[in-house]
Amino acid sequence: MSAPFGIAVVTQNVEYRRQAHSGRVVRIGLPGPGLTGSPRGYPEEVATLSPEQTGTRAAAGLAVLCTAHFLIGADGLAVAIALPSVQQDLGVPALDAQWLLSAYGSAFAGTLLLGGRAGDLYGRRRLLVLGMALFAGGSLAAGVAPGLVPLIAARLVQGLGAAAAVPAALALISSVFPPGRGRTRALSLLGAMATVGIMSGLVVGGLVTDLVGWRWVFLLTAAPAVAAAVSAARVLPEARAAERGSGPPDVAGAVLLAAGLMSFVLGVTRAAPDGFAAAGALVPLVAGAVLLAGFVLRERRAREPLVRFRILRLGRLRAASLGIGVNALAFTSIVYVGTQYLQNVQGYSALRAGMALLPIDVAAFLVALLAGGPLARRSPRAALSGAFVLTASALLWLARVPVPADYPTDLMAPLVVLGAALSAIFVVATHEAVADAPPDERGLASGVFETANHLFGGALGAAAYATVLATAAGTAQDPGGYRAAFLVATALVVVLGLPAAVQAGGRRSATPENPAPWR
């Protein structure tokens, strides 16, 4: 299942050579799984642990990486569950409170490629330590924030930290575990811990919100994040690209992308009270378009761009990126709309709402575990088409839920269908993302893929649904607004998801990539 607040793991085949004079392992071709490579595919110097260092230290390193993925995976769902309490405590409307998700998503999506490139240049362990320190600082600041604006600023810091930590953590697996089954198991465990984090975020976030208040959702994250940063500095080896290109990472490009996303999100949310033609919405929309156009121009001229746009000529990558974006939009409808609907309309407590949504994660986990292999071998076009039809059907089902609802038939059943369908889309799209990419551009392809996930989900999805709720609902307890939001989600899946499926490959590649663990 694609979650805008989760982590994808995309693996690919690479060649390793050992330098006789130093014993260092040098990876030739694409650096790292997922978002870990430099955009030019430089050879990477990897400080793989020697046989005598493996065992306890390797296990400790893996525990640190899993902790980072667990915390980042749990954060988004825990915050979403706490949103109604935040709104009530701070006295802010839902349209403003959604910035807790959109600000985080914009920072994450806007700087994710920068985080991977910075790790190439300055060291992956260093970026992981910095990322988890920022994540801890943002969590602490959010927990003590006196109002909404400082709280949103703290979420921006958390997003920046996550964007630095995620690609670094994925790359460091290669530094701790040499090629083979050990690395495959480590990647699987890393993905599983992110999954457990997502599931725990629903329950723990609800429990903490009910017992001690929403502020502790953030405060309880700070200490483990600090521990992860300190432990990473002690037990993980350093690794960076052996050939680092001709210039520093394109910070200006990342700033343009993140600022453009946030400006566009502001325009979308301001359209609810004022309309899209009003200055309050039109000005930030135009500004966002200008900033994003500036990002494109910057990347075309930069010596070391974050993304080379010729990669978008790959049809299967375009289909996979659009598919994962639609998948993220569908999941965000549950994360943002569903959590509020259960608490504001159905009268659930935060804990009960978190427990009620667990079937979507359980179904997604089981599908990835039991059907991931068969799905990866099927025709991508057929698999995606069927999964998007199921996704649209489940969302339409949720749009027709009565008040009060019978949980097993009205809520649990569509959530199970939705979780299974989203998981299937994630598995197939992950394979498609690198299916037709040249070996030295698969890291860039997976970076574009993951950026689309967070762009459509955490950045734009919450803003779009908040606008629908503010426009269609008279009050927070009005079920009409939530039904309208689920109908919009259904329409987006049909209008965007099915074309993505049609663009996907008709047949599975003869040499498929290794399956990616669900996160």
From TrEMBL:
GO MF annotations in UniProt: transmembrane transporter activity
Protein topology in the membrane: Multi-pass membrane protein
Subcellular location: Cell membrane
Cited SUPFAM superfamilies: MFS general substrate transporter
CDD domains, A to Z: MFS_MMR_MDR_like
Keywords: Cell membrane, Membrane, Transmembrane, Transmembrane helix, Transport
Gene Ontology, cellular component aspect: plasma membrane
Record-annotated membrane-spanning stretches: 59-85, 97-115, 127-153, 159-177, 189-208, 214-236, 248-269, 275-297, 317-338, 350-370, 382-399, 411-434, 455-476, 482-502
Presence of the UniProt keyword Cytoplasm in the record: no
Major facilitator superfamily (MFS) profile domain boundaries: 61-508
PANTHER family cross-referenced by the UniProt entry: BLR6921 PROTEIN (PTHR42718:SF46), MAJOR FACILITATOR SUPERFAMILY MULTIDRUG TRANSPORTER MFSC (PTHR42718)
Protein name: MFS transporter
Organism name: Saccharothrix syringae
